[in-house]
């Protein structure tokens, strides 16, 4: 595990802290990318909120809600590793344009079906599968493309700021989505999300290709997927974060299933209350992400600490007696969740070989999203068999178990004499 030298800490000027926190934004291509993505992600979170509420409206079933989430993430489980192989082979900028355009079309179709009042549950399921197929290839491509925009020195900061952007959109998107659902209907959220993809595609086309730093494309060869799996298993700073995220992703990151039912049945809230509690988590994630970006910590120990904080805060939110207190604790849930993701993602990217980075990110996404086809219905079943609080609580327990398991695995690796950390591109992990 990583170690930190103790010593006197000097006070730093606020301007220095700001420069370090936002250092990757000095790269013009990354600024353009962040602008387009920030608009698109607000639309994405609006669609996520609207889709959850649409499924509840159509079926009144937490199990059905878990099924839709599972169908949307099942392709990531099945095809995500191959998506990493494609990302290592492809021109990532051009592939991103194609994939982002396809996501806009999916949102447009869902929006038109909903606005005209003809949407059926099976159609939501089919479009969720289509979006999941796109995500199976887009996730690894998008995240490995960040390295090509900013270079290795700014990679850690860029990954964290990207997480901040995602969660800032989480703070804004659900709140706007909840209001739009109440005022103009669910379908408008899908149509606005479709329009938001124009911004991200335009940002990709505006980039200066001469300033990109593409990794050498991996030539086609047999066994590249197996090669990536062997490499991940043999590298502790990749294998241990993947194992931790596998468990946490399975049970903790099922907020699309747990939160709507938690708000509706525990506190008898509507779409606006759902937007408020989701936004509270997003605000906490923004604060936590900026803190993580300024500190620049990566490695196994910080990831374990974030997992403990994630678990404790989820348990607190689950058993808060009133809605206002639950929202307040969700700020801490957001803080810890984005720290856990950013630290784990950065550790894997900085440790992995450049020609294998797409495959390693794909495995990370499989552990994060690909476990949802199992975890989503499982959490929905837990809620159906007990109560909505248990849906959040089981996620909190999984975080604590992951932290303990990661600690034991790291100790076991160290006991065998194998290094639990490696010199990464951006410095020691």
Task: Kindly describe this structure.
- The radius of gyration is 21 Å and the shape is globular.
- It starts with 13 loop residues before the first helix and ends with a strand.
- The chain has a single domain (25-210, 223-428), classed as Growth Hormone, Chain: A.
- With 429 residues, it is mostly helical.
- It has helices at residues 14-21, 28-59, 62-89, 92-115, 121-150, 155-183, 186-206, 224-234, 236-251, 255-266, 271-295, 300-318, 323-351, 357-370, 372-385, 388-415, and strands spanning 423-424, 427-428.
- A two-stranded antiparallel ribbon has the order 1-2.
- β1 (423-424) and β2 (427-428) form a beta hairpin.
- The longest helix has 32 residues, at 28-59.
Give the terminus-to-terminus CA distance: 9 Å
Mean pLDDT: 83
Strand order, largest beta sheet: 1-2
Count of folded domains: 1
Architecture (CATH level 2) name:
Up-down Bundle
CATH class: Mainly Alpha
Offer a quick outline of the entry.
By secondary structure, this protein is an all-alpha fold. It has helices at residues 14-21, 28-59, 62-89, 92-115, 121-150, 155-183, 186-206, 224-234, 236-251, 255-266, 271-295, 300-318, 323-351, 357-370, 372-385, 388-415; strands spanning 423-424, 427-428.
